[in-house]
Amino acid sequence: MTTATRVWVRFEGVGRDFVAKQWPIPNHSNSFTPPPPDARALYVAAKKSFAINRPGDRRPLQLPFSYAKTWGLDEDAYTDVVFARASKKYCLRFIFNVEHTLKSMEFDTFKTYVRLVKDAKFHSDYLEGRKGLPVPVHYGIWVMNTGDWGGTVMFSLTQYCGISWNELRSTKFNTEANRINVGRAYEKLHDVGIVHGDFKSTREFRHAIVDLFAPGLTEKDALNGKAPCYLVGFSEASANHSCTPRLPILPLDSCPSLHEVGCAELCSVFFLLDFAKPPLENSLMSRALEWHTEYSKRYPQVENRYVLAAQRKRFYPQFLPLDPSLHVSVPNVDDPYSRVLITRDIHEDDARQDDVLSSGLQRVAISGIDSLPAEYRAALAKHKSLGPQFVVAF
Ligand SMILES: [Zn+2]
What we know:
Blueprint: E1 6-11, E2 17-23, E3 41-44, E4 50-53, E5 60-62, H1 67-70, E6 82-86, E7 90-95, H2 98-101, H3 108-127, E8 138-145, E9 152-159, E10 163-164, H4 165-168, H5 176-191, E11 208-210, H6 219-223, E12 229-231, H7 258-261, H8 264-272, H9 284-298, H10 304-315, E13 327-329, E14 341-346, H11 353-357, E15 362-365, H12 374-381, E16 389-393
Parallel strand pairs: 1-3
Antiparallel strand pairs: 1-2, 2-8, 4-5, 4-6, 6-7, 7-9, 8-9, 10-11, 11-12, 13-14, 14-16, 15-16
Helix pairs in contact: 9-10
């Protein structure tokens, strides 16, 4: 198969085509995917195709082509990378007026160029040809002379991936399914030891691109998280990232700590996708609270510390009790509000005797066990530690 070593770029209405040649990044392997034959003639429409992520919220701002003529010439002006959708399938990201904008490493335009090149290098070193990664295909960096249109122009040529999540999250496409889809893209990256590295606030979701125009995708699919999601902008990325995620990046009914999530970047993604929640109505915590309220109401004579001990046993049995000398039994597990039996052995010389007797527990002799209700007798029979006397809350 022949591959393109030159591509022609036409901007609608500009009146001339520009010829671009692939630029070999100095001292680099340049192992990019060769552009397919249909990338030989790239067409950029005048409307809704040429944009920059504006300062502040970094959402795309559509530009006229005339912006190319002055980009980077005013050193105080905003000089983020300008990008274009070409021939529907490709994305071009530009550095204009290279004769001037790359003159000094101090220029912001030079820093934009460095990011473009670092991203390209990371693609060729770690991402190109790896199946299953949520990243666009990268076809390398290209250079063309456009005369007085935009001077010498350098651009990266990649697969077009769609609309950024930074943009979509304020639309009807901000569904839970799509947020899971975005989170999954970051999880996939971390799963192979890559950290994106440029993720500090929601505006960095400009790097997460959702392809709402994917072939065969219906609007319903797009709302239900079926659109492919890609990550772009790897200038700060690193490979060989080691992390140990402990939770999926999914909506949870609680608010995990960084330690519980297990990775700083995934933790940021988790929180900025709004997956952390105060406990939902039916969360374990809310059920435990509800139980506490109702149990206290039904058995007002039982002191709160025993209600808490019973609550702990019923809802969080995996955790150590506060007082290991208390034995807590749930006589009837099918009835959520069956009275919980709490016992503690006592001995005549038990220094805590007065203490426990004054705290609402009743003193019972083992010989008096038959006087207790049947369900308690069954529960007590399992207590091997019962001494001749014990205290009980019921
Ligand atoms: Zn990680």
